[in-house]
Amino acid sequence: MGVDRRGLRALIQLGAPARHKGASRTSVMMVSVLKEKMKRIPTLTKQNVIAKSTGSVSGSTKGFKDFVLRREPEEDDGSFDNKEMLLQIERDYMEAAKRNDVATMTLLGKNVNHNAKNVHDRTALHFAVAGGHRDVVELLVKRKVRVDVADKYGITPLHLGAWFGYADIMRMLVQEGANQKALNQEGMNILHCAAINNHIEVFKYIIDDLQMKDLDAQDKSGKKPFHLAAEHGSAEMVKKMMEEDYQLSTTEKDNEGNTPLHLAAKNGHTEVVKSLLRTLQERNELNEAGESALLLACEGGHEDCAEVLLQAGYDVSIVTKEGRSVLHRVCESGWTSLVKLLINNGADINHQNQNKLAPIHLAVMKGHIPVIHTLIEAGCNIDITDNRKQTALHLAAELGKADVVEMLLKANCDLTLQDKQGKTALGVAARGNYVIIVDMIIKGERYFTWKKDNAIHNDTIGREFPLTFKFDHKTENKQIRGIMWNLAYNQLKDNDWRKLAVEWHFTEPQIQAIEEQWIGPKSYQEHGHRALLIWLHGVQMTNQNAGKELFEGLASIGRKNMAEKIREENAGPEPKKCTIS
Length: 581
Known about the structure:
Keywords: ANK repeat. It holds the Pfam family Ank_2. By secondary structure, the chain is an all-alpha fold. The protein has helices spanning about 5-15, 25-40, 45-50, 65-70, 90-100, 100-110, 125-130, 135-140, 155-165, 165-175, 190-195, 200-210, 225-230, 235-240, 260-265, 270-280, 295-300, 305-310, 325-335, 335-345, 360-365, 370-375, 390-400, 400-410, 425-430, 435-455, 480-490, 495-505, 510-515, 525-540, 545-555, 560-570. Helices cover about 50% and strands about 0% of the residues. The chain is elongated. The chain starts with a helix and ends in a 12-residue tail after the last helix.
């Protein structure tokens, strides 16, 4: 029985396996088999569809990423079903082109619009070229498809051939009259596409065979192909364009004032940077933002690249229009190894930007502990103030960064400095209700006051208890911490803790900072507990007898019974641990 081709065409165009009037049973079966065959084809994944492109995809290459990942961008028009812009047969035809299914395209070919566009203005030829499907391209060319159709981003099939490195397919398209000078919406031509992706064969085809050296022009961002090759790390392309035979290298700046070296350094392309430095005479050139290639390399964390630039003589002291140095950028980003590299190469560790922020301020604001440690070890001024007259400790207290506060306290920062509002770091922490930090700073103030007044004993400090201002979690002190809690919550009266604090030389600002915390009518219990633990820290750090000091303190505020109980517990040939039941 012969095939009813007229009925078959109608069924395929309708996209349904239902029996069509005038169609034979055989034709219906053929369409059903075809449809099932197409369903069984596995979904394309990123791993098995990415073409030969070796370059990265950036914002300046808008539209190409859709082809790299084999997906469509988000649909902009939600007013109607965009998918209905294509007939089912046209969608099937495009899908066949994507997966190099020549057989299906041959079967559908006589009944389909070969130039049909999807909602993104892409045709079957776009997908065939992007996939490197030479056989499909040949089929479409034989069917006289339009070879210069641009999609919504202005990308033509010839752009895609250059982007993915298919010189042979490009030859086919050029022979069919493809426009070799076509520009996409970003102003990129085929030479830009080849340069980005390091496709030497395509480059040589364009320059040697097509003699299109005039394509060495700027795109809308002011970048020539050489800029893009440097920006995307196309090392071989950069070297090729620098050769005497081509002379397509440039030191011109793009619209943002970036030279090819700026772009290569920003993206960490060390080999490209080395190539450019061999012929570059000018050093420390700045872009419109006042940024050097060294600053851009460091900002991106590209240590190898930064080291190459430093060895080439780049200046670490250059600052941007906002007064930001290279060290500012890396401290803010947290690149510890780069911080060390810059310091070792003479970077000013105390340079302040237009807001008077020094590197230590930025590191503290971001909480980069290793960077802070590196700056302190290098001898930075930890008491330097910004335009709010705040030190690094003020900022750490304001932001509630206890670990940073600990580091700064250990570095013996100045605890008396006041900001523009007249607040010390202690006042800032109390205002923010950062209880842990308040207690840490009070411990620090008391400890360093004692150290200053007892300089002769400083050599014995910390032998038993390592210096720290954090809450004590050590197991061996669990018992005495329990005693302090019991004393505060069960035995001391409302104003007793304040009297003890005065007896133990707490300052009035310290007492007020503790009292900033409010948890209800019995807040005094928590206040007393905190004061006792702060006092205990000082006793331990200065190697004093806790039992004796507590006895004397309680006796001085009129709690003799409690004091006598402590005396009894500590009586005997050897003093016992301070215990209160």
